[in-house]
Design goal:
Largest sheet: none
Number of domains: 1
Number of strands: 0
Helix content: 40-55%
Distance between the termini: 109 Å
Length: 136
């Protein structure tokens, strides 16, 4: 059985020897790997940009991709720092932090007042006086 593989354009050439086939296959594999890396890099940059609060993701085109490195797990090395640098140099691409929003999360349970049974006699007398003070 002849070992025939398709060319990048999808056509077959049975006259190629097995030595000639790996050359164009290696080029095709290298092109696919390069495309894969580019897509993974774009997806990771998009994720980092959304986490950093970027308004317009077209701002990612301003990043020098030659400086971006990916780790073994296909994550961007120093992604938050990259976004912080971009925020400093081009602040209009990001949301403005609101000063009216609370800095910390509110308590999960409302403050519970002491009941009369939990108060000492002095605390009860003060609480009763505060309540009855404005009664006529």
């Amino acid at each position: 059985m002849n070992n025939v593989s398709p060319r990048p354009d999808g056509s077959f050439d049975e006259s190629e020897t097995p030595e000639e086939q790996p050359d164009h296959l290696a080029k095709e594999i290298a092109a696919l790997q390069s495309d894969f890396r580019t897509r993974i890099l774009a997806a990771n940059l998009t994720t980092e940009a959304v986490r950093a609060g970027m308004i317009d993701l077209d701002g990612l085109k301003l990043i020098d991709l030659s400086a971006v490195q990916m780790g073994e797990d296909d994550k961007i090395i120093g992604g938050p720092k990259l976004m912080d640098d971009l925020r400093r140099s081009k602040p209009w691409l990001f949301n403005v932090m609101s000063s009216s929003s609370p800095a910390s999360a509110p308590a999960s349970q409302p403050v519970r007042q002491k009941t009369a049974l939990e108060m000492t006699d002095d605390e009860y007398a003060l609480a009763r006086a505060a309540v009855t003070k404005y009664r006529i």
